[in-house]
Amino acid sequence: GYVLDKPVTELCLTCICEAISGCNATAICTNPIKGACGIFRITWAYWVDAGKLTINNEKPDSQRAFINCANDPHCAADTVQNYMKKFNQDCNEDGEMDCLDYARIHKLGAYGCGLDKDMPYSYQSTFDECIENYEDQGFV
């Protein structure tokens, strides 16, 4: 279940993480019913769509498989990679599939990432600021 061909760069993952949660690893969830878990704020449905990745050879159908993966930064990042690989699309219609599209897909979902949908201001501004900081440092 781990991704070999990873469409999302480490830098892009970092900025999505910053935008969605401030990469706050202490704000974990212990109950999938509460919604979004881990540094990428992954929902149960997102995890299922991404292939139900697990850690430590845990069975995907075990009671804590989702929570354990979503709260583990590596498993969560691989879950994002799988989701983007599955739902890769040009959300902003600029002719390429890139980090801007992945940020929209992550926040708005695979079928709601088009330009007719607005990104939440705090998410978009934090994401843009993160990307700009890396550009200023010559990483992009």
Structure description:
This protein is mostly helical. It has one domain (about 10-135): Orthogonal Bundle (Lysozyme), CATH 1.10.530.10. It has six helices and no strands. Helix 1 runs parallel beside helix 5 and helix 1 packs antiparallel against helix 6. The longest helix has 16 residues, at about 120-135. The protein is globular and about 40 Å long. The two termini are about 30 Å apart. About 35% of the residues are buried. The model has no long low-confidence stretch (mean pLDDT about 90). This is lysozyme.
Name of the top-level CATH class: Mainly Alpha
Name given to the CATH architecture: Orthogonal Bundle
Question: What is the tally of beta strands?
Answer: 0
N- to C-terminal distance: 29 Å
Largest sheet: none
User: What is the molecular shape?
Assistant: globular
Number of helices: 6
Structural class: mainly alpha
* Residues in helix, %: 40-55%
Strand content: under 5%
